[in-house]
Write a structure and sequence with these properties.
Blueprint: E1 4-7, H1 12-23, E2 29-32, H2 37-45, E3 53-55, E4 60-62, H3 66-77
Parallel strand pairs: 1-2
Antiparallel strand pairs: 1-3, 3-4
Length: about 80
């Protein structure tokens, strides 16, 4: 399953999200929206105006969401 984290530099919530995903053993790709205009447009098209935005094939969410990360880890381990 592909997990993408859209982020920007010096983002506290982004760093917390990375740590939580890593701790749960979830592999992810980071895309910096300050360097990738298409990624920024994609995040805005999803309806978000802040990062991090985490996107999986099934869902997406914004902000540091340990509940969503735990649910994702459970889904991946099933």
């Amino acid at each position: 399953m592909s997990v993408t984290v859209y982020s920007k530099p010096s983002c506290v919530q982004c760093n917390a999200t990375y740590r939580a995903l890593t701790k749960k053993g979830i592999e992810y790709t980071v895309v910096d929206v300050t360097e990738d205009e298409a990624a920024l447009a994609h995040v805005l098209a999803l309806g978000y105006q802040q990062v991090p935005v985490v996107e999986t094939p099934q869902e997406h969410w914004s902000g540091y969401r340990p509940d969503k990360i735990t649910s994702l880890a459970m889904l991946l381990s099933a």
